[in-house]
Amino acid sequence: MFFKLLIFIVFYHKYGAFLLFFGFDCGFGVWMVLFLDLGKKF
Fold first, then answer.
1. pLDDT digits over 1-42, tens only?
2. What's the domain count of the chain?
3. Is 22 domain-assigned?
């Protein structure tokens, strides 16, 4: 779980500003989907 959380933090740190450009709600929704998708791979 920690490993997945770490990946999530790294990706969000890299692309967080890009997501904030679209607004928090949209960005959060997209990242939740991507995070769950990453969870399946790991």
1. 677 777 777 776 666 665 555 555 555 677 777 777 777 765
2. 1
3. yes
d(C-alpha 39, C-alpha 17), whole Å: 23
- SS (HEC) of 1-42: CHHHHHHHHHHHHHHHHHHHHCCHHHHHHHHHHHHHHHHHHC
In a domain, 30, yes or no: yes
Type of residue at 16: G
pTM for the model stands at 0.32
Q: 2 in a domain, yes or no?
A: no
- Taking the C-alpha atoms of residue 21 and residue 1, their distance in angstroms, rounded to an integer, is 28
For residue 23, which amino acid is it? G
